[in-house]
Each structure stands twice: as C-alpha cells, then as structure tokens.
C-alpha cells in the first residue's frame, strides 16, 4: 500500500471508496441523444442581446444571495401558487442533495423511498447523506404499484418520497390518484417530492396542488427547457419548509452568469416553450416511426425522450455508436428494462440519423 492508499483507507468513507463516479461519456463528434437536452439554442438575436447582458455582469462580487430576480420570474411565469415560494439549486441535482441533507436525521437512520427504475440521483444522494434507500418496483407497464408503495411506506416510514412526473427513464406520467394516495398516506410523517424535470413537455403538474397538501413539494429545472448548461433547478413549497431547506443550501450556490442567463431566458420563456412544443411534435412522429419497426415496443412518453424495447439492446447500441449516435442502454439498470434503450427527441435531422441507424441494427 502506498501512503496515498493508506491515507484514502484512513479517511474516505467505505461506501464512497467502493462506489463509482457518475459516468458522463465524452460526446465530441457524436450526435448526443443520451441526456435529454434541448437541441435548439436561443435564436441569434436573443443570443446577441444576452451577450451584452453577460458583458455587463458583475463578476468581481459574489452573487446577491436572495436571487430575487430569478425567483420573482419563476413565481410569476411558472405557476407557483400565491403564498408559496421557491429555493434555487445548481441544477435539481443539488436540490435533491439539499432535501436529503435536511432530512437525514441524526437520531435515527432516515429512509428515502422511490419507485424504481428511477432517476439515479435519488439513491445516490440518499446514500451520500447517510440515509437508507428503498426502491419499490413499478409494474411491468411502468405504472405505480400503489399497494406495494403504500405497504413500503407503512413498513419503512420514509422521510422523503421522490415521484418523478413524468418518470425518467420510463417517460410516463403516473396516475394522479396513485400519487395522491401516496401523498395522503404520508401526511405529516413524510415529504413527497414531485420531480417535474420534464414539465415543459408533459404540461401537467402538481404545482396547483401545493395548497391542498402541506407535505407536497414540487421540484423543477430549466435544464430540459433548453438551459442544461447553466445548471438551475428550483423547488416550490411552503415558505416555512423552504426555510429549513435553505439552512443547508450552500451559500452563493447559483452563480452570477447563471443568474443573468436565467433572468433573460425567463423573460423570453415563450421562445423555449415553442421549442418544447416542436419537440413534442417530433416525439409523436419518432414514436410512430419506431412503433412500425418489427420487434420494437415503444412505451408512451410525456417527456423529451422515448424508451423502447428492441430485440437486442447491446447490438442496437453498438450499431448506433458506430454511426456516432449516443443513446442510453437501460438494460442493466433494472430487470423491468431488459433490452430497453432511451433516446432523446432531437431535431428532424438528428432523429432521422438515429432512426436509420436503429433500422439498420434491427436488420443486420
Ligand atoms: N430529475 C430527473 C427526473 C431527471 O431526469 C434529471 C436529469 N436527467 C434531473 C432531475 C436533474 O436535472 P438537473 O440537475 O439538470 O436540473
């Protein structure tokens, strides 16, 4: 053992030493359909105007931590009910981590519960905060197993339940009555996080239910709307609850450049909404084209990606990779996803490159 190995063994947590880095493949030279990004930039005229705003940004000072400019716009434009507020995160990834840090109690090991397969950061953040993660499998059609969820809630008494609406990696919206049953079963004993990362595409939301359920919070992001590069997520909830989360939020967690871009983009949010509407149309076309292919099952999606089952996911991914198209092979994530792949909906040109390579992989 070298001295650095000894240092690591003596200092770094065992579960971290045994773990792995969140893998993001190098995508240069590839058509990138693996990360649910919006393929469109802001129009040139807006980018020129934004460049001027960025040139004027105050970079020698820390950001003003109230973030009132962004918060006002989010409250006004994104449907936050009167009497509710938001906190901001460096992506919703950071919000997930803040939620876990605030609920990881020291007097007992707290539990995070989520249906699986789910967004991997729910489990990773729970683990890093020293919490137990309980995953309850979805049904084969990816709907919530309400009875199993309610039984798991009774048994494990989770502090936090994450419900992605729509879910990643399956793309579907859960049944609203199933979600409400979970929120009501938890009541004062647990917080339900409606993770609405794909809200720009789903256009349905639990936001307007905030006044009805004190244990409900709604998490969203600007990433999928077309601003993945600026890393801005937000959490809407009752101010008293937000105050608790705000205590564990790192200071200045949203930087000045993000602040400038977010305020500007929210002033022009209709442009981003129009891009999302275009992607929804492309999703309908791409899903229909894939469903017509022999041996392919396309699952319903309310997000900007489509999950499908192919005869041989390894072979399809290898063919797509050879054609320089990056998608996500979901096969190893969960048994419900055997031979499933996930593709982000993109421009008509990129969708057609993907579709042709997919067809070729099915023939060869
Ligand atoms: N929630 C879900 C369901 C997601 O799929 C993602 C990103 N893939 C996130 C949260 C995190 O988004 P971000 O950190 O970019 O805001």
Automatic annotation (TrEMBL):
Alphabetically list the UniProt keywords. Amino-acid biosynthesis, Aminotransferase, Histidine biosynthesis, Pyridoxal phosphate, Transferase
Give the InterPro entries listed for this entry: Aminotransferase_I/II_large, HisP_aminotrans, PyrdxlP-dep_Trfase, PyrdxlP-dep_Trfase_major, PyrdxlP-dep_Trfase_small
Q: Which residues carry this modification: N6-(pyridoxal phosphate)lysine?
A: 224
Q: What is its EC number?
A: 2.6.1.9
Annotated Aminotransferase class I/classII large domain ranges read 30-358
For whether the record's keyword set contains Amino-acid biosynthesis, the answer is: yes
List required co-factors: pyridoxal 5'-phosphate
Cite a single Pfam family from the UniProt record: Aminotran_1_2
The metabolic or biological pathway listed in the UniProt record of this protein is:
Amino-acid biosynthesis; L-histidine biosynthesis; L-histidine from 5-phospho-alpha-D-ribose 1-diphosphate: step 7/9
Q: Name one GO biological process term.
A: L-histidine biosynthetic process
Instruction: Enumerate the CDD domains for this protein.
Output: AAT_like (cd00609)
Q: Which HAMAP family match?
A: HisC_aminotrans_2
Listed name of the protein: Histidinol-phosphate aminotransferase
Give the classification, highest ranks. Bacteria, Pseudomonadati, Pseudomonadota, Betaproteobacteria, Burkholderiales
The encoding gene is hisC
């Amino acid at each position: 053992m070298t001295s650095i190995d000894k240092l690591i063994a003596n200092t770094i947590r065992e579960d971290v030493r045994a773990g792995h880095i969140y893998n993001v493949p190098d995508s240069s030279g590839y058509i990138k359909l693996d990360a649910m990004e919006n393929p469109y930039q802001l129009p040139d005229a807006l980018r020129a105007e934004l460049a001027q705003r960025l040139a004027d940004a105050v970079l020698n000072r820390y950001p003003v931590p109230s973030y009132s400019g962004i918060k006002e716009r989010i409250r006004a434009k994104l449907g936050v009910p009167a009497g509710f507020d938001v906190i901001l995160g460096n992506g919703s990834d950071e919000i997930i981590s803040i939620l876990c840090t605030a609920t990881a109690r020291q007097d007992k090991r707290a539990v995070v519960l989520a249906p699986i397969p789910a967004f991997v950061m729910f489990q990773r953040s729970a683990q890093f905060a020293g919490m137990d993660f309980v995953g309850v499998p979805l049904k084969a059609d990816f709907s919530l197993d309400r009875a199993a969820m309610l039984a798991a809630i009774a048994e494990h008494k989770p502090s936090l339940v994450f419900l992605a609406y729509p879910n990643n990696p399956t793309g579907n919206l859960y049944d609203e009555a199933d979600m409400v049953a979970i929120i009501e079963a938890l009541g004062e004993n647990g917080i339900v996080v409606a993770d609405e990362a794909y809200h720009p595409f789903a256009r349905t939301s639990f936001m307007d239910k905030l006044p009805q359920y004190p244990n409900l919070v709604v998490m969203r992001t600007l990433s999928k709307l077309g601003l993945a590069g600026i890393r801005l997520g937000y959490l809407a909830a009752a101010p008293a609850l937000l105050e608790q989360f705000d205590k564990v939020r790192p200071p200045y967690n949203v930087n000045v450049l993000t602040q400038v871009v977010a305020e500007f983009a929210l002033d022009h949010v209709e442009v981003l909404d129009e891009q999302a509407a275009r992607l929804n149309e492309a999703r309908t076309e791409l899903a229909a084209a894939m469903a017509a292919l022999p041996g392919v099952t396309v699952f319903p999606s309310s997000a900007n990606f489509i999950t499908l089952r192919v005869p041989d996911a390894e072979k399809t991914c290898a063919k797509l990779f050879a054609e320089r198209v990056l998608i996500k092979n979901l096969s190893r994530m969960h048994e419900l996803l055997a031979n499933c792949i996930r593709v982000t909906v993109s421009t008509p040109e990129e969708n057609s490159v993907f579709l042709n390579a997919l067809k070729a992989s099915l023939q060869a």
